[in-house]
Write a structure and sequence with these properties.
- The structure holds two protein chains of two kinds.
- Chain A contains twelve helices and four strands; from the N terminus they run ββαβαβαααααααααα.
- Helix content of chain A is about 70%, strand content about 10%.
- In chain A, a hairpin with a 3-residue loop joins β1 and β2.
- Chain A is of the alpha/beta class.
- Chain A has two domains: about 100 residues, 2-Layer Sandwich (Transcription Regulator spoIIAA); about 230 residues, no CATH class.
- The longest helix of chain A has about 40 residues.
- By secondary structure, chain B is α/β, with parallel strands linked by helices.
- In chain B, about 35% of the residues lie in helices and about 25% in strands.
- In chain B, the strands form two sheets. A six-stranded mixed β-sheet of chain B has the order 6-7-8-3-9-10, with helices on both faces. In chain B, strands 2-1-4-5 form a four-stranded antiparallel β-sheet, with helices on one face.
- The relative contact order of chain B is 0.17.
- The chains are: A alpha/beta, B alpha/beta.
- The interface between A and B is medium-sized, with 33 and 35 residues.
């Protein structure tokens, strides 16, 4: 068959004429290529109506070459005629085309029951509202399942791979060190700047070491580290587990009798909950050093005296409180990340969605938890 | 033979130092259905990846017509690949799109057809593979066999000159597999498509192949080439044994 590039090809054309009283004869000529301008099935319908024909004969002896364009056209014509109950005589078509059309038509099963029409906005709103109950139940059952699996983990009966846990510990801990260090150092600098400029109005800028130290140790180090890890590990957990759903790896675990919660959720939960306090302790140090960098340069204070003052103001309770909070944040990151991964549907688009949702829910959960901690710590006077 | 649409010349395939196949030499003629067969792991799919430029040969070259594909630059490769359609073993449909969108994408990207015309073509191609009415379904809502057929609809969206198919009948029940074979033959007859099939399904080979190439994984070379019936009856022992292994499972339609 001739391919593209032939400029001499005759254009596709169609000629309709009456044959006898009731038959419309359709003569096709030229080269029928999808890329060119082709007559459409609607043209044939018009001719059929004008002629008042009750049968159609197609003669394609004038056709020089074709591709799918001709098949599309003929398919459309045949469908039109079938819908109107008109007999079609396509003896005049090349045999391979007749066979292909037969294949198309025999395959034209009744379309499956079409999907439900798109609900209106009120219905969608209602469904979403009712969906909340289900969501709450899903969350509760996920948390419950995780708790049970955690129990099995603690008693050494959970099924998971030790080397997975090792890799996860490495990824959530040492792997995150540089970025955690950098971000917390910068936060220390910011706190010190804000602190000094405000305290200076009362002539109390000397207390900046206290403010930075306490803010970092009690809250900021844990909070900032948690947000960094939500973006790093939470998103990674969600994307990985969602991909495992696409490739049916999660199904494979399930049918082996291995609970995905035990195998996938628990190691991540344990890894990040263990690593968060360690990272936070390190972040405490970096935050204080960041504050010291500003404090000592802006106030001409000696580094040793800045640090000594920090040591006097920050209590052990402040630091331990921060570490406890960080462990809770870590658990939230792991839970939101893995839950978003497990709820994903089997499509590549959903993998990206799962990662996005994991970060968003993770960060919201962390900040909400932080607020609750403030209130509880305030109530107990810690 | 001047009508060769694809030529593999003295091709050696290797993963690092491990040589998979050596000295492959064959030509595929315009309008034929050429089957590459052999046992599992003999390098069939690797050969397919070489012909598509997904893997670079350790030695030798692949030519499309008279033009070397192996030595072509990125722009030329892209132009040559435009003439090619591929049905992957796992069908490789884009899961975030509906079937109609999957088939429409190549048409939207590489033709200037109007949206209405594209829709017509998409409907036809899906009807050809027996998926009329499934336009708005997503791949994960379909069975493996249906995904495979949808993958074929996408592969033929642009009326390729050469259609590559990796294991057409894998994951299909025999009747569906035979129907796919028939469809492949009709595509060749009606649209002049050259088809290159990689498979180990004996029934399929006898049913559709104009000529077949037998790769021997142990000898690391091709040991026979010819029409399948001839290979089955008069080929080397290994090839006849291969065909005999599948005998009695399927009556050959040819």
């Amino acid at each position: 068959m001739a391919r593209e590039g032939d400029q001499t090809e005759a254009l596709a054309a169609m000629e309709a004429s009456r044959e006898g009283d009731s038959t419309l004869l359709l003569r096709l000529r030229g080269t029928w290529r999808l890329a060119g301008t082709l007559p459409s099935a609607a043209d044939v319908t018009r001719e059929l109506e004008r002629a008042g024909a009750t049968a159609l004969r197609v003669d394609a002896s004038g056709i020089a070459g074709w591709d799918s364009g001709l098949v599309v056209f003929l398919f459309g014509v045949l469908e039109t005629c079938r819908a109107r109950g008109l007999p079609v005589d396509h003896e005049g078509l090349p045999p391979p085309l007749v066979r292909m059309l037969a294949l198309v038509q025999e395959a034209a099963l009744p379309p499956p029951s079409s999907q439900a029409p798109k609900p209106r906005w009120l219905e969608r709103l209602g469904r979403r509202a009712l969906g909340w109950r289900e969501r709450v139940r899903d969350v509760a059952s996920f948390v419950g399942e995780t708790t049970v699996a955690l129990g099995r983990f603690v008693t050494g009966r959970a099924r998971f791979r030790g080397q997975d846990l090792g890799l996860l510990l490495e990824g959530a801990g040492p792997g995150a060190l540089p970025i955690v260090a950098l971000v917390n150092f910068l936060v220390g600098i910011i706190l010190a700047f804000v602190g000094i400029t405000q305290l200076r109005r009362f002539g109390a800028e000397y207390y900046v070491a206290d403010i930075v130290g306490i803010a970092v140790a009690r809250d900021m180090a844990a909070l900032i580290t948690a947000i960094v890890l939500a973006g790093r590990s939470g998103a990674a957990y969600a994307a990985q587990i969602a991909t495992m759903k696409v490739t049916q790896e999660v199904d494979a675990l399930r049918t082996l009798g291995i609970s995905p919660v035990e195998f996938l959720v628990v190691p991540r939960l344990v890894a990040i909950t263990l690593m968060m306090p360690l990272l936070t302790l390190f972040a405490d140090l970096m935050g204080i050093l960041g504050g010291a960098a500003v404090g000592t340069t802006m106030m001409n204070q000696a580094v040793a005296s800045y640090l000594r003052q920090t040591a006097q103001s920050v209590t052990q309770g402040d630091i331990v409180g921060g570490l406890v909070k960080s462990a809770v944040y870590g658990a939230l990151i792991a839970l939101t990340g893995t839950a978003r991964g497990l709820e994903a549907e089997r499509s590549s688009e959903r993998v990206g969605e799962a990662a996005t949702k994991a970060v968003v829910t993770g960060v919201v959960a962390i900040i909400a938890a932080c607020g609750i901690f403030q209130y509880v710590f305030f109530l107990f006077g810690w | 033979m001047t009508d060769a649409i694809l030529t593999v010349r003295n091709l050696t395939m290797a993963f690092g130092d491990r040589v998979v196949m050596e000295g492959l030499d064959f030509q595929i003629r315009r309008g034929e259905i050429y089957v590459v067969m052999g046992g599992s792991g003999c390098g069939k799919s690797t050969l397919l990846r070489h012909m598509l430029g997904l893997q670079e040969p350790a030695a030798g070259e692949v030519l499309f017509g008279e033009e070397s594909f192996t030595r072509a630059g990125p722009a030329d490769r892209e132009r040559l690949l435009r003439r090619v359609g591929v049905l992957y073993q796992g069908s490789a449909l884009w899961t975030s799109m509906t079937l109609a969108e999957n088939v429409a994408l190549p048409l939207q990207q590489f033709t200037k057809l109007s949206a209405a015309r594209i829709q017509e073509v998409v409907e036809l191609k899906l009807a050809l593979v027996g998926l009329h009415g499934f336009e708005s379904f997503h791949p994960w809502e379909l069975s493996g066999g249906m995904q495979k057929r949808a993958g074929l609809a996408r592969a033929i969206a642009l009326d390729p000159e050469i259609l590559f198919i990796d294991e057409p009948s894998a994951s299909l029940d025999p009747p569906t597999g035979r129907r796919l074979d028939r469809l492949i033959r009709e595509l060749r007859d009606a649209l002049g498509t050259t088809v290159v099939v990689v498979t180990h399904d004996v029934a399929s080979i006898v049913g559709i192949a104009s000529r077949a190439l037998f790769l021997d994984g142990e000898a690391r070379r091709a040991i026979a080439e010819g029409p399948p019936a001839e290979l089955r009856d008069h080929g080397p022992d290994k090839v006849r044994a291969f065909f005999a292994g599948g005998r009695g499972l399927e009556p050959s339609p040819s």
